Amino acid sequence: MAANPVALILGAGPRIGISVAKKFASQGYKVAIVSRSGSGASTAPNDGFLSLKADFTEPDSIPALFNTVESEFHAPPSVIVYNAGARTVPPVEDQLFSNSVENLVSDLNVNVLSAYVAAQQAVRAWETLPKEFKKTFIYTGNIMNTTIIPMAAAVNLGVGKSASSYWIGLADTLYQAQGSRFFYADERTSDGKIKGMAIDGDAHAEFYTSLTKHEGNVPWHATFVKDKGYVQFK
User: Fold this and answer.
1) pLDDT at 39
2) 114 closest CA partner among 52, 70, 65, 49
3) Number of alpha helices (DSSP H) and beta strands (DSSP E) in the chain
4) What kind and span of H or E run contains 181?
5) Which of 18, 120, 177, 192 is least buried, going by the fewest C-beta atoms within 10 A?
6) Are the CB atoms for 118 and 62 separated by under 8 Å?
7) Which residues of the chain have a pLDDT value below 70?
8) Which residues contact 120 (CB under 8 A, 6 or more apart)?
9) CA neighbor of 167 nearest in space, from 105, 114, 231
10) 140: β partners
11) In the prediction, which pLDDT does 45 show?
């Protein structure tokens, strides 16, 4: 077993994904990042991440990532962050059902099914870790699992976030007693509104690393505010 814990970041975008990866690396984690442009090699000397390539519209591609990470780091990831997302806008503005079924399925593969497969692989991998290890799965969510955004353009993303929030909440309920936590993380403004494009990568990094400590009775629906951490909104 590796001396350093391992974190797998699925969806290594320039704001949240990379910020989260750097934060985990600074805390001693070995880090693998996955994106559509992954190189299949280390990103050293700048940060030393293992860079992997994947198409999140294909859920069957996810298990191989776990195999590669364990092979490279000689240990499975104890932390998995699912940060991939997809939103195909309906071709006719404000016409919800002008969106094709094919586009909906493709986006659901990214927003729901690949995340589900990642959690499935995580649970299997965690069985090989010592019991004292804290195991954590974090899904980057938003307000759409509790609030209807009155825009047809939001449909694919909203359906995906809502679906994933359910199984994440269920997984946390069923696996928490085994030392495993599942979180649907949702950054909000200080008054509880959606952050939208104003999301903060560093705020996510701080909050995500704090979640891995399993402290403070943070629930699976982990709403948070920059510089405050978990904040409950009703």
Assistant:
1) 62
2) 65
3) 6, 8
4) strand 180-187
5) 177
6) yes
7) 1-2, 38-47
8) none
9) 114
10) 185
11) 44
| Cα 141 from chain centroid (whole Å) | 8
Q: CA-CA distance, 227 to 223, in Å (whole number)?
A: 13
* Model pLDDT, residue 1: 45
Q: What is the spatial distance between Cα 24 and Cα 17, in angstroms, rounded to a whole number?
A: 11
What does the alpha-carbon distance between residue 200 and residue 196 come to, in Å, rounded to a whole number? 10
Residues 171/121, Cβ–Cβ less than 8 Å:
no
Task: Please choose, from the candidates 126, 120, 137, 121, the residue with its C-alpha nearest in 3D space to the C-alpha of residue 181.
Answer: 137
Sign of CA dihedral 28, 34, 35, 40: positive
Distances (CA, A) of 14 to 18, 51, 139: 6, 14, 17
DSSP 147: S
Alpha-carbon distance of 67 to 184, in angstroms, equals 25
**CA–CA dist 143, 122 (Å, integer):** 25
Is the distance from CB of 110 to CB of 86 less than 8 angstroms?
yes
pLDDT on residue 30: 95
Cα distance between residue 105 and residue 191, in whole Å: 34
Q: Any idea which residue has 């985990």 for tokens?
A: 24
Q: Residue 27, Cα to own-chain centre: how many angstroms?
A: 19
Residue labelled with tokens 């948070």: 224
Two tokens, residue 109: 């593969």
CA distances from residue 34 to 14, 85, 232 in whole angstroms, order as listed: 12, 13, 31
